[in-house]
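Why does this matter for the project? Reviewers at the last site visit asked to see concrete outputs rather than summary tables. In response, this paragraph embeds two records directly. Each consists of the residue sequence and, immediately after it, the corresponding structure tokens. Nothing has been edited or filtered.
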Amino acid sequence: MVRDFPYTGIGLNAFPLVLDNLYSLPDTRSYPTPAHSHNIFLQAAIDLGLFGGVAFVGLVSSFWLSIARPWTGWRDTRIAALRRGLSAGMIAFLIYGLTDAVTLGAKPGIFFWSFLGLAQVLSRTSEIAPRPVVTPLRSSRLVSWSLAPVFAVAIGITLWIGGGSQLVSSAYLNLGSLETSRALGKGSGIDIRGALNKAEAYLVQASSYEPRNAPAHAFLGIVHERLGKYYQARIDMENAVSLDPNDEWARDQLARFYKRVGYRPGSLQ
């Protein structure tokens, strides 16, 4: 999912919907669809994209900078106890997040944001022993300045490797994929045909900015199939397979389409 939605992510709480409708899975009737990726750092990148994943790491770093800043000079034992409690809670959260996840969009996630806020309050209100520096930076300013080069380098590398057109194409692909997942999910209150039409418009833009964007052609084929435009769907899916013959998912979609409409190509190889 990170590879398919690297810039914007799939959105908060969309993991099971996207997993069910956009990816080929083994038979899952015997167990429910997973609600998340069971790793908090990976889940942040899935939900928010690569830049969002970096921002999540920055938030965690800002917590530790805020907690560590007033390490010495605390005269109130109650504040010291609060600091230890926050540190222990965040350590438990991060260790738990290595094999499971309380996602950022989940209701219990409010405790994570509360921890961040309390850490910032402590860093600004606690008594701090004098230090031999003239103008110490506040932790929030330090984090901002330290993360700025990271974002600048990440954006620069992305534009240098992918190019501007590929970046725009990927953004339209993400939007089209999300609209497709909404339509295929058939949730209550969703205008399925309207969602498919929006997905078609986004995916057409994605393929126009980057004609060799194989996933855009594959998703466009699925949308056209659902809209009853079978000839266009076949062309789109065949283009996706020809652009990326090693994409197993695209080949499966094309084979499924051939079987559904009774089309007999010479070979899928």
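We now turn to the second protein, recorded in exactly the same manner.
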Amino acid sequence: MRSTASIRLSCSALATNSTPQRCLLRRIRTQQGAAAQELQLIRQERDALQRERDLLMHQVTMLHTMHQTTQQQMLHEMQHRDDRLLEAPRQPAAAPVVPASRATPQRRGADLKASGQAFDSTRHVLGRLCPRAHEYQGTGQSLQRLPSHVCFACDAAHTRERRKAKRGGAQ
């Protein structure tokens, strides 16, 4: 068997004497250098992936904790609300409001005055005082048409003005 020193000596002697062998040694050294660089890049990528995984695990843990805290807060609020409802004095239930059906005839004119109702609530409503200050029976509000919520008196005045302008323009 040859010793490692004699092999080195023979390889170095071969390397100095022949060019194909020199090229082969250079190629081997180049491949070793490239392999070492690739190994280093792989290790760096592995380390980066491990850091990213650790960060994601930390975020998952935080989200899980936040979820549990939110659930506990909601449960506490619901229990508190239930306790308040149980402690509150009970009030008698109000009679259910039954909407007027379309099958019943709508009251108009004399029927409304006979019943004591001042306006048809299915067609009119009291609302904010209009810009022309048409106040309905001292309520401080204007009578408005449904569904447009236009002041009844303003609408009538506008119609009169429009008709008057139309008659004046035709003459």
